[in-house]
Amino acid sequence: MSAADVRPVVDPARLGKRIAELAAIGGNGRAVTRLGLSVEEQAARDLVGGWLGALGASVRRDAAGNLIARFGGDGPAVLAGSHLDSVLDGGRFDGALGVLCAVEAAESLRAAGARFRRPVEIVAWADEEGARFGLGLYGSGAAFGRLPAGAAERRDALGVSIAEALRALGERGEPEAARLPAGAAAAYLELHIEQGPRLERAGVALGVVSDIVGIFHARVTVEGRADHAGTTAMDARRDALAGAAAMLLAVEALARSREGVVATVGELAVRPGAKNVVPGAATFSLDVRAGDAAALEATIREIRAAVRRVGDERGLRSTVDVLSSVPVTPLDQALRDLFMRAAAAEGVAAPVLVSGAGHDAMNAQLAGVPAAMLFVRSTGGSHTPREHCDTADAALGAAVLARALGELAC
Ligand code: HGY
Ligand code: MN
Ligand code: MN
């Protein structure tokens, strides 16, 4: 049966039920917390792996902790999926919806009698958010050979390394071993909630991604001198936190001054952290993004200069340690067109959007595997329990994904 004869019919009720079932893992009824390589993320893989196994897929977990469910025999596979981990106190749709819609697409194709002419792998990448170890896009980075050196030694706040977390799950602790052989993946499709307001404002359920912004992650350490809060005159201080505060306001001003650039300081730590001690040291995170490579580079350069300048003015030592840096990533034009056609076949004239959020599709595309993303309208922002996606929009996304997957694989 060729792709043209196949009429996959998705089941919104089944999809809605699975969204709720998955949200209960790491959920407290309000928010979802399913950190990378945690027992909660593993429980999510077990739940989704069970659904895929029941469809006849051969389900495995690779050395990095990625869930890979393969339909069909040998040869380059068409991959579809997203991630199952979340940020702290996150929503129930970020990542999870892409995995569940890929499951729904595979299930509706099988139910419509489709035979996969080429293998299909439904994937859930481990630790996309990097919320625990500070290394985003980790699982897809391992699979596509794009992990930074020393990744397995990255540690969480309790000092547990990625290698130790993998061993606790029963793996050997060598994420590099998950690297896919060259040519193993023919294409990668990812559905994801938009996480921003554009589709909602446009009144359209779906969008197709043209490019994903470049993302620079770093940790800034500021060293001053701890002193007595009562006996140290203001002009005799080397207050690391006051210095860090001046730096992060400079970061905000620099990002505001340049169109299309965003910069965020989301983490801040102070030592020794007592009300009657002048802070001796402070550490803060940097997340800088832009759709234009030159603007991103210039902003990073200016931020480094501002950190140095404030440090010199205040007698503070400062270091900027780069955690990860992913370039602006244009996605595959042919697969973009495929999503546009599939959306049109479902009656949606999908606008083309640049993604301000990072996604695993970047690692696929940058490793030479053609990748494309389909956005589904979401409301309430994202990386917050307010994040929401209507089941009707999610089901429409799954139907478009099923059509695209059917055209590539059947
Ligand atoms: O941070 C991001 O853009 C993605 O949600 N991990
Ligand atoms: Mn995501
Ligand atoms: Mn996210």
Explained architecture:
- The structure is a single chain.
- Strands 1, 2, 3, 4, 5, 6, 14, 15 and 16 form a nine-stranded mixed sheet that branches. Strands 7, 9, 10, 12 and 13 form a five-stranded antiparallel sheet that branches.
- Helices cover 34% and strands 22% of the residues.
- With 410 residues, the chain is an alpha+beta fold.
- α1 runs antiparallel to α3 and α7 (240-256) runs antiparallel to α8 (293-314).
- β3 (77-83), α3 (96-111) and β4 form a beta-alpha-beta unit.
- It has helices at 12-23, 39-54, 96-111, 138-143, 162-168, 198-202, 240-256, 293-314, 333-345, 361-366, 391-409, and strands at 58-61, 67-71, 77-83, 120-125, 185-193, 206-212, 214-223, 227-228, 261-264, 268-271, 277-278, 281-290, 317-326, 329-330, 352-355, 371-376.
- The protein folds into two domains: 3-213 and 328-409, Zn peptidases (Aminopeptidase); 218-326, Alpha-Beta Plaits (2-Layer Sandwich), CATH 3.30.70.360.
- It contains eleven helices and 16 strands.
- Bound molecules: (2S)-amino(hydroxy)ethanoic acid and manganese (II) ion (MN) (2 copies).
- The site of one manganese (II) ion (MN) has 5 residues, from loops.
- One manganese (II) ion (MN) binds next to loops.
